[in-house]
Amino acid sequence: MIVGGNIPDFRALADQLAAYAVQIFAEYGLRDPDLVVSGTGRSIEDFLAQVLGDYATGKIKHHSSKGELISLLGKALKRDVHDALIRKRSHLREENRDVTSAPSDDGTGTEKAIDGLPHPGPSVDTLFDEQEYKDRVRAALSAEPDLVDLADTAFELNIEKRQEQADVLGISPEELDNRKKKLRRRLIEYGFFAAQKQ
Amino acid sequence: MNKKSNIEDRRSRLNKLSEAVFGGPEQISREEARELLRSAGIDADTIADAVYARLYKQAQEYWMAQKPLPPLLKKAIEDLRPSTASPRNEKEMATQAKARIERVVGQSRHPDAWIQSTTPAFRPSAYRGKKKLSTKDESALDEIAKRLSDKLKGPQGS
Question: How far is B155 from chain A (nearest CA, A)?
């Protein structure tokens, strides 16, 4: 018997969280066509199965006082993606350090060139750099000024509340919701179709 | 401030910005979710089937250990049961038929996503702007015409 609140529809949760995971991938410029955090081998399916499995087996507990279940699971999923990104960067840094400090073929002990090695990608500092994040999002929305304006309510004016954002933009809260919907779509289209064209 | 807490602060700041700009997952309806996945060229059913397989494997561990299945895991497996699995009753059969029709209708509404999922040889755009058909194209079309003609004649001949 399931106790403690509403019975979740796991199929709906899977769809919504999968879309949210795709959004997170796009936000961090992860454009691997296989939807994997490269270097860790963890895919959107892995993140999703982990978070739903943890909830289904009681490792993640939800209480209605904590807010909506999907918000709680979304936060857990985002934390997992972030952790995978951090692990990936640390791993690549270690790998790079090992090879660059290895003696060269002629035994002189000079550092080897790193050409041909897997590119370490941006550091953790860069990955979670606020300005880099804002630039990535703005680049995705650059074709639509009204969406950039929406993003700037948070980026430039630090406004987080729905009503306040709507007031600043001079639109209704419902219109704001529609604009955010469009914004999510643009971000994902930019992230994924741009990757397919590369 | 140590480096770890510095990264934690940055993550939390970016989470706040993301929430303010894009909203949280609770703002994505199921319908929008499927649209978003389609925009990224992802099939929601494929993802759900893969998640089902992982959860089923977790459930097997309980069965093997002869432990009772947690109710939420049981519910997850029921909800995520793939549409391609054999229906266990009439209700499931109806649900699967509905899902299949919705998928076909959905694909027809998004030709871009459909084109991405097909091989170049079957893309209609491959013929767009072509002035003259190559011998290979002609023989492919002849073969299709013959197959259709045979199909039409088939029932009369038998």
Answer: 44
Asked if B65 has any chain A CB less than 8 Å from its own CB, the reply is no
Q: What is the mean pLDDT of residues B102-122?
A: 64
Across the interface, whether the CB atoms of A10 and B22 are under 8 A apart is answered: no
Q: Closest chain A residue to B116 measured between Cα atoms? A: A196
For residue A48, give the chain B residue with the closest CA. B51
Residue B145's pLDDT is what? 84
Q: How far is A97 from chain B (nearest CA, A)?
A: 19
pLDDT of residue B68: 95
**pLDDT tens-digit profile of A73-130?**
999 999 999 999 888 766 655 555 554 444 444 433 333 333 344 445 567 778 889 9
Report ipTM (2 d.p.): 0.79
Between A64 and B33, residue with greater pLDDT: B33
Q: Do A11 and A48 touch, CB atoms closer than 8 A?
A: no
Residue A17 pLDDT greater than 80, yes or no: yes
Interface A-B: count of C-beta contacts within 8 A: 167
Of A22, A56, A130, the CB nearest to B55: A56
Q: In whole angstroms, what is the distance from residue B112 CA to residue B38 CA?
A: 10
